[in-house]
Amino acid sequence: GYAGTSISEVSSRSGLPKSSIYWHFADKDALFAAVIEDSYEQWRADFQARNEGSRPDAQDVLARLHDSLSTFPAFLRFGHLVILERHEQDLTARTRFLEIRERALADLADRFVEVDGMGRRSAEELAAVALALIDGAFLARTAGEPTLEGSDVLGRVFEAAVGSMRQPMSSADRSR
Q1: Which of 89, 123, 144, 166 lies at a 20 to 30 A Cα distance from 3?
Q2: 150-163, pLDDT tens digit by residue?
Q3: Are the beta carbons of 59 and 158 closer than 8 angstroms?
Q4: Residue 60 C-alpha from the chain's centroid
Q5: Is the separation of the CB atoms in 127 and 112 below 8 Å?
Q6: Do 151 and 133 form a contact (C-beta atoms < 8 A)?
Q7: How far apart are CA 45 and CA 57, in angstroms?
Q8: Cβ atoms of 80 and 54 closer than 8 Å
Q9: Residues whose CB falls within 8 Å of the CB of residue 58, separated by 6 or more in sequence, listed in order
Q10: Given CA atoms 74, 80, 83, 88 in this order, what sign does their dihedral have?
Q11: How many Cα atoms occupy the beta-carbon half-sphere of 16 within 13 Å?
């Protein structure tokens, strides 16, 4: 975890002297924040490249997110560590991960409004459900629970959520 990781351990495992690590990062928090941001950007670039030119429906988006995160899990692993552990002061790494989640929720909601024609509130709620399912599947996969390794079960659950939230967009909802 975050608390149990020391710069000395990072130094010995990476083979770099501590002075080199401190040259690039002010402290462990800055290092964790950089790892989260860098691994997120790598995942996002890969995800966008794989999905360029396609306009999948909501269920396909969830399945694609789930499947792609199994190959790029670092930012989720580090992000979950810093949001789940208690810290005396707010960490930059935690703030960065929460910002990424906020952007992801907004991007998903925008996509559900645009492609699936949902109202804004429904799209935001559905984005939150999607992220919760992805988080849960990630934790289950990490725990070695094989039931959620594939995206089929998640797709069926999410399809039910989509069906219950899909409704014609009202003029008030469109203006938000």
Answers
A1: 144
A2: 667 777 777 777 77
A3: yes
A4: 16
A5: yes
A6: no
A7: 20
A8: no
A9: 112, 115, 116, 126, 130, 158, 162
A10: negative
A11: 11
pLDDT digits (tens, 9 = 90+) for 113-123: 887 778 899 88
In the 3-class helix/strand/coil scheme, how is the chain assigned residue by residue? CCCCCCHHHHHHHHCCCHHHHHHHCCCHHHHHHHHHHHHHHHHHHHHHHHHCCCCCCHHHHHHHHHHHHCCCCHHHHHHHHHHHCCCCCCCHHHHHHHHHHHHHHHHHHHHHHHHHCCCHHHHHHHHHHHHHHHHHHHHHHHCCCHHHCCCHHHHHHHHHHHHHHCCCCCHHHHCC
Residue 34 amino acid letter: A
Residue with tokens 């351990």: 9
Evaluated on CA atoms 159, 124, 39, 96, the torsion sign reads: negative
In the numeric block, the tokens 């190959």 are attached to 71
Distance, in Å, from the CA atom of 20 to the CA atom of 175, rounded to the nearest integer, reads 52
The pTM assigned to this predicted structure is 0.79
- Among positive and negative, which fits the CA dihedral 61, 66, 70, 72? positive
Q: Which residue has the tokens 């939150």?
A: 128
Cα–Cα distance measured from residue 105 to residue 126, given in angstroms and rounded to the nearest whole number: 9
